[in-house]
């Protein structure tokens, strides 16, 4: 029985049998080392880039909101001082 990474479970149903041992991996590791086996479960760069993009976007929205609120507060204080 070959090593099957956890991320491969459920991706190829024709190679899996539910409730039984998995007998085949989607592809064998190139040199059989432990490191190459774990590289099959690495995070894809596309979702990682989308996550970074989302975090940066939300941070910029937060900065815009804070600047707008400080502008409104300073305008209200200016009106109070003038009157």
What does the largest sheet look like?
none
Share of residues in strands = under 5%
N-to-C SSE string, H for helix and E for strand: HH
Distance between the termini: 83 Å
Characteristic key phrases:
mainly alpha, 2 domains, 0% strand, mitochondrion
How would you describe this structure to a colleague?
The protein is an all-alpha fold and 83 residues long. The protein folds into two domains: 1-42, no CATH class; 44-83. It is 53% helix and 0% strand. It contains two helices and no strands. The chain has helices at residues 34-39, 45-82. The chain is rod-shaped. The N and C termini lie far apart (83 Å). Mean pLDDT is 70; it is low at 16-22. Keywords: Membrane, Mitochondrion, Transmembrane, Transmembrane helix. The chain crosses the membrane at residues 54-82.
SSE blueprint and pairings:
Elements: H1 34-39, H2 45-82
Task: Offer a quick outline of the entry.
By secondary structure, the protein is an all-alpha fold. Helix content is about 55%, strand content about 0%.
């Amino acid at each position: 029985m070959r090593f099957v990474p956890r991320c491969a479970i459920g991706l190829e149903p024709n190679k899996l049998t539910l409730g039984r041992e998995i007998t085949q991996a989607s592809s064998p590791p190139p040199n059989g080392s432990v490191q190459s086996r774990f590289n099959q479960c690495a995070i894809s760069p596309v979702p990682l880039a989308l996550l970074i993009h989302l975090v940066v976007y939300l941070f910029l929205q937060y900065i815009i909101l804070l600047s707008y609120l400080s502008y409104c507060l300073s305008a209200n204080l200016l009106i109070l001082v003038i009157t």
